[in-house]
Specification:
- It is a single chain.
- Helix 2 (about 50-65) packs parallel to helix 4 and helix 13 runs antiparallel to helix 14 (about 380-395).
- Among the domains are: about 180-250, no CATH class; about 255-485, Rossmann fold, CATH 3.40.50.
- Helices cover about 50% and strands about 10% of the residues.
- It is built from 17 helices and 13 strands.
- With about 475 residues, it is of the alpha/beta class.
- The protein has helices at about 10-45, 50-65, 70-80, 85-95, 100-110, 115-130, 130-145, 150-155, 165-175, 180-195, 200-215, 220-230, 320-335, 380-395, 405-410, 435-445, 465-475, and strands at about 255, 260, 265-270, 280, 305, 310, 315-320, 340-350, 350-355, 380, 420-425, 455-460, 480-485.
- Strands 3, 8, 9, 10, 11, 12 and 13 form a 7-stranded mixed β-sheet that branches. A two-stranded antiparallel ribbon has the order 1-2.
Length: about 475
C-alpha cells in the first residue's frame, strides 16, 4: 500500500502548479475580454453615427434636399472621426459649391488636417478631380499648407489646368505665397508653354506673377529663364541671347489707364442721367494720331482750373460732358483691340442694353426691363469694331443707376474673364431710392465665386464718397484696379 510519501514527485509537482495556473488563466481571460470590448468600443467611436454607409446616405440626401444645416452637422461628424474614409466623403459631396457656408466649413475643416494620408487625398482631388468648383475651394486649402511639399507641387501643377478659372485661382495663391524660390521655375515653365498661343489673361497673369515675385520685368520666357538661372547661382543674369521668338507682341490698349490684359473683355458703361454732367478738363494740343493700342493720357481738373498745385491756362480749359469723355476713351480702346480678342459692351441705367442685341422695349417705372436673350462676345474684327463704334456714338444718358442689375447681368454672360465697369453715381432705382452698395458687392461675390472674372472699376470722384468706396471695394474684392477720375 502506497503512502502519501510514495506519490511520484512529478505528479505532485503538476498538481501544485495547476492550482496556481487556474486563477491566473481566469484573470487573463477576463483581462482579454475587457481589452477586446474596449478595442471594439474605440473602433465604434471612429465611425460616424450609424456607420459609414449611413453617413454617406445622410450627407447625399441632405445636400439634394438643400438641408445644408444638417449637411454641415454631418461634415463635422465625419471630421471628428479623423479617418481618411470620412474625409473622402467630405471631398466627394460637401465641396461642390452647393452652399457657401457648407463650403466654408468643409474648407476650414481640411485646413486643420495634419494627417499625411488625408492631405494626399486632397492633393489627388485637385490633380485628378473633375469638379472645377471643388478644385477652386481646395486650392485655398493648399495655400494654407505652405510647409507641405506635395501640397505646393499640386498648387503649382494647377497652372496646367484646362479650366481658366482654376488657373486664375492658383495664380492668386502663388502670388500670395511671395516665395520666388518655390514658384519662379513653375511660372516660367508655364509661360513658355503658353506664349506661342494668342495672348490671353492667363498669359498676362503669369507675367504679372513673375514681375511681382522678382521685381524685374521681361517680355519672353527665355529671358526670364536666363535671369532666374543667374539669380539662383548668386550671379548676374547672363547676357541676353539673340533668339528667334514666335511670341506675338503688340501694344496693348487701355481704358482710362487700365491696360486691357485679356482676350475675353466686357465694358460696362453707365448711361444714367448724371452722365450728362459737364466736367472741366484740360484740352491737350493737337498732334498726329496715336498708334493703335496706345493710350493718350486724360487729365481731369477742378472747376477752378487747378490740378493739384498747378494752374492750367484758361484758354486750355473746356467743359465736356462725362458721356462724351467716356465715348472718346472707349472708341480709342476699341480701335486698339487685336483681332483675336473677343469683346462686349453693356450700357446700363435702370435697364440694361448690349452691343449686338435688339433694342429693348420702352421701360416702365414699376417693372425694370431685361433682355430675354443671352448676349455673346464678338471677335474684334475690323467690321465688328466699326459696328461697336457706331453703337457707342449713339449712347444717350437718361434714367437711374442700377449698378446691381448691370453686375448681375454681366456675370450671366458666357466666356468673360475681365470686366471694366465705368460709373459716376451711387446705385439708385427708378424711384430714385438708394440701393445699398453692399448689395452690389454681394452679387459680385456670389456670382463670381467660381467664375474668377477680374473687375476693374473707373469712377468719377465728384460723385461722392459712397460711389468711390463702392468702386474701390468692388475692384479689391475681384482682383482688379480702381481708377477715380478727379
Amino acid at each position: 500500500m502506497r503512502t502519501p510519501h510514495s506519490i511520484p514527485v512529478g505528479l505532485s509537482s503538476w498538481k501544485s502548479t495547476a492550482r496556481g495556473v487556474r486563477p491566473l488563466a481566469g484573470f487573463l481571460a477576463v483581462l482579454s475580454l475587457l481589452l477586446s470590448t474596449a478595442f471594439a468600443s474605440s473602433l465604434g467611436a471612429e465611425e460616424p453615427e450609424g456607420g459609414w454607409k449611413s453617413a454617406e446616405n445622410r450627407l447625399k440626401k441632405s445636400i439634394l434636399a438643400k438641408n445644408f444645416e444638417v449637411a454641415r452637422s454631418i461634415v463635422s461628424e465625419l471630421a471628428e472621426t479623423n479617418e481618411v474614409r470620412g474625409y473622402k466623403l467630405i471631398l466627394k459631396y460637401a465641396l461642390g459649391g452647393h452652399n457657401y457656408e457648407l463650403d466654408r466649413l468643409a474648407g476650414r475643416t481640411l485646413v486643420a488636417v495634419e494627417s499625411s494620408n488625408i492631405r494626399k487625398e486632397v492633393c489627388a482631388e485637385v490633380a485628378r478631380g473633375k469638379n472645377s468648383k471643388t478644385k477652386i475651394i481646395l486650392l485655398a486649402v493648399l495655400r494654407r499648407w505652405s510647409d507641405d511639399a506635395l501640397a505646393m507641387k499640386t498648387l503649382h501643377g494647377a497652372l496646367r489646368s484646362p479650366r481658366k478659372e482654376v488657373v486664375f485661382t492658383a495664380l492668386r495663391w502663388i502670388r500670395d505665397l511671395e516665395n520666388p524660390e518655390l514658384s519662379m521655375e513653375p511660372l516660367i515653365d508655364e509661360l513658355a508653354r503658353r506664349e506661342k498661343k494668342p495672348q490671353d489673361r492667363v498669359y498676362f497673369d503669369l507675367q504679372k506673377a513673375l514681375e511681382e515675385l522678382s521685381g524685374y520685368k521681361f517680355k519672353v520666357s527665355i529671358d526670364w529663364r536666363n535671369f532666374w538661372k543667374g539669380r539662383k547661382g548668386g550671379k548676374k543674369p547672363p547676357p541676353k541671347k539673340e533668339t528667334e521668338s514666335r511670341t506675338v507682341l503688340y501694344k496693348r490698349p487701355s481704358f482710362f489707364s487700365v491696360t486691357v490684359d485679356s482676350d475675353r473683355v466686357l465694358f460696362i458703361i453707365d448711361v444714367s442721367d448724371s452722365m450728362k454732367i459737364m466736367d472741366t478738363v484740360i484740352q491737350k494740343p493737337r498732334r498726329p494720331p496715336e498708334e493703335p493700342g496706345r493710350k493718350g493720357r486724360t487729365v481731369v481738373v477742378k472747376p477752378d482750373g487747378a490740378s493739384g498745385s498747378e494752374k492750367a491756362p484758361v484758354d486750355k480749359l473746356k467743359r465736356v460732358a462725362r458721356i462724351t469723355r467716356v465715348k472718346h476713351e472707349l472708341l480709342k480702346t476699341l480701335a486698339g483691340l487685336p483681332a483675336h480678342v473677343r469683346f462686349g459692351i453693356m450700357d446700363f441705367n435702370h435697364q440694361v442694353g448690349f452691343f449686338g442685341s435688339p433694342p429693348p422695349p420702352a421701360p416702365t417705372l414699376d417693372k425694370p426691363i431685361q433682355h430675354a436673350q443671352t448676349p455673346a462676345l464678338v471677335f474684334a474684327s475690323k467690321t465688328n469694331k466699326q459696328k461697336a463704334a457706331d453703337w457707342v456714338r449713339k449712347l444717350r444718358p437718361s434714367g437711374a443707376t442700377r449698378t446691381d442689375l448691370a453686375m448681375s447681368r454681366a456675370f450671366g454672360i458666357p466666356d468673360i474673364d475681365t470686366i471694366y465697369l465705368l460709373t459716376d453715381g451711387t446705385p439708385r432705382d427708378e424711384k430714385n431710392q438708394k440701393i445699398a452698395p453692399e448689395l452690389v458687392l454681394a452679387i459680385a461675390k456670389m456670382q463670381n465665386r467660381f467664375r474668377k472674372a477680374r473687375v476693374h472699376t473707373v469712377g468719377f470722384a465728384q460723385a461722392g464718397f459712397t460711389m468711390q468706396k463702392l468702386c474701390r471695394d468692388l475692384a479689391g474684392q475681384n482682383d482688379g484696379k480702381c481708377v477715380l477720375l478727379e
